[in-house]
Specification:
Oligomer: single chain
CATH topology: Retinoid X Receptor
InterPro entries: NHR-like_dom_sf (IPR035500), Nucl_hrmn_rcpt_lig-bd (IPR000536)
Keywords: Membrane, Receptor, Transcription, Transcription regulation, Transmembrane, Transmembrane helix
Largest sheet: 2 strands, antiparallel
Distance between the termini: 47 Å
Strand content: under 5%
CATH superfamily: Retinoid X Receptor
Number of helices: 6
Family: Belongs to the nuclear hormone receptor family.
Protein name: NR LBD domain-containing protein
Helix content: over 70%
Number of domains: 1
Order of helices and strands: HEEHHHHH
Amino acid sequence: MLKWRRFVIKVVIEAINFQRYCNFLRQWCYVQNLFFRYACAVDCMITSAYFTYRLGRHKKRMVMFNGEFLQMDPLPIRGDEPGAEVLFNSKSDYDKYRSLMPTKIRQWTNMCVPFCELHASFEEYALLKALTIWHLMFYKLSEAGRNVCHRQRDLIMLALHQVCSKKALDPEVRMGSLLLAMSYVLEQAQALVHNYRMITFFDVMKCDSVLVDMFNY
């Protein structure tokens, strides 16, 4: 009888440990998915801003992360103006445009234009991108993940300060300007994630299966 009780207790303990392990795996997969999703969004936004600064600002073109561009002078219509649907060949084309263009216009006015005024170097752009990704993920991580995030952010901040010290007359002011840029990059990255989640959820347009998986919880 005693052996049987020990056996039952052992089975129960192993079952509990297995359940904890499964919960850990589910949580870890969720964190990985979330980190990848937001990292892609930040990369898409800030890379577009940097490409626009380097390649498109003089001609008022917003250059995307993939090298394509939109002419932003004059600003394109948002798609939600009265009677705008008559400008499109089909309702599906109109729905796609109306889903994407408002985000693109906000990306130009709220991020690309102020980023161009920052005149960021490549080193500043790369460090700002990494810092923004870690900052965005901080409150979505576990305690252990936050400790890793703290270390990464401290190292990036140190590197950014060194870059500013070498290239700016007033390193503190320059670094402050770069850190303030994180606010509009974060805002546009979150808007991008939300927008594409809505597009994939309501099946407004056909998206790559990897993109659909990436925006699923």
